[in-house]
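INFO batch 0412 | record 1 of 1 | parsing
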Amino acid sequence: MLLANQPSVLFACALLSRTWLLLAIAASSRQTGDKILGLLYPDHFWFYVGLAMGALPLTRLVFPKLWQKLSIRTQLWGILVLLFSDIAIQIHSINLNYWRFETLNAVTLWISLMMSFIVFKSALDKHPSH
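INFO prediction complete | emitting C-alpha cells
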C-alpha cells in the first residue's frame, strides 16, 4: 500500500485532521462538548475552516485505498500544501492574540513546522519509499 509505511505522512494527516478528532471528543461528551469547542474554537468560523482542511487528510487515514491511484509524490505535495495552509492559519491566530506566548500554540506550530520539513524532504526524495 502506498505511503502506508511512512509514519511521518500518517502523523501529518492526523495532525491536519485534529479538528475532526476534537469534534468526535466533543460529541462523545454531551454535557461538556460545547464548553470544549468554545474553549478551543471561540470563533465558529475557524472551527469550520479546520473541518474543511482536515477532510482530505481524514479520508487519507480512513480510506487509504482511495489514495492509491495518486502517485506518492502527488500525495506528498498535497499534504505539504495543506500543512503550509495550516501553518498560515496558526500564525494568523497568534497574530490575533497580539503575539502573546501560549504553550498550546507554540507546540502545535512547532510540530506543524517539523512535519512540513519532513514531508517536504520526502517529496524531494528521488526514490520515495513504498
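INFO post-check: Helices lie at 7-16, 18-28, 33-40, 44-62, 72-96, 103-124.
INFO record closed
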